[in-house]
Amino acid sequence: MSRYEMNTELSPVPIPALDAVAPEVDRQVYGMPMFATIPTPDLASSVDFWCEGLGFIDLFSIPGRLVHLRRWTFQDVLLVPGDAGSSRASLSFACVPGQLDEIARRCEELTPGCTSGPTLMPWNSRDLQVCTPEGASVVMTAALPLDPDSDQAQNLREIGIDVPH
After folding, report:
1. Spatial separation of the C-alpha atoms in residues 120 and 144, rounded to whole Å
2. Which long-range contacts (CB under 8 A, 24 or more apart) does 128-136 make?
3. Which of 43, 113, 129, 144 has the fewest C-beta atoms under 10 angstroms from its C-beta?
4. What is the DSSP letter of 98?
5. What is the pLDDT of residues 116-155, one digit of tens each?
6. pLDDT tens digit string along 23-82?
């Protein structure tokens, strides 16, 4: 039988108790191990619902393209424009660049035609789109080194993300 130890330092989730106190929202920019991307036909209404109803904050926005919401550490949601009826939500999982081709190869062996990419993204990552047997949209995303003098770094600074020179 396996033995597991509770790691209370790793997770932002408080130890279960009736008087537990929710952690503060972490406003730092960090590498997200996982996040959801959800299309919406009305970004403003969706932001209002997620923030006022669910307790998320608008960490940063790229007007008309993306709103990055956060609740607790590692509870990140990206809202993007799209018809909620025809587009589906996706889950993104962090990986490193050297894993993408191998993941694509293995997925294609199991389900031919299930992958697209990897594709270079404007936010300085390579993304592999995968459709799982259940029909879920999964993105394996690998951040790339960022040149502090690049256009991408300047774009990040313009939306409020501190990129050292």
Report:
1. 9
2. 128/100, 128/103, 128/104, 129/90, 130/103, 130/104, 135/88, 136/90, 136/91
3. 113
4. G
5. 999 998 778 899 999 987 788 999 999 888 888 888 788 7
6. 888 888 888 899 999 999 889 999 999 999 888 999 999 998 999 999 999 999 999 998
Q: Can you give the pTM of this predicted structure?
A: 0.75
Two tokens, residue 21: 């106190």
Q: Which residue has the tokens 């926005």?
A: 61
Q: Which residues are CB-neighbours of 22 under 8 A, at least 6 positions away?
A: 14, 72
User: Selecting from 3.40.50.2300, 3.10.180.10, 3.40.50.1820, 3.20.20.80, what CATH number does the domain 34-158 have?
Assistant: 3.10.180.10
- Report the chain's terminal Cα–Cα distance, integer Å: 51
| Amino acid, res. 37 | T
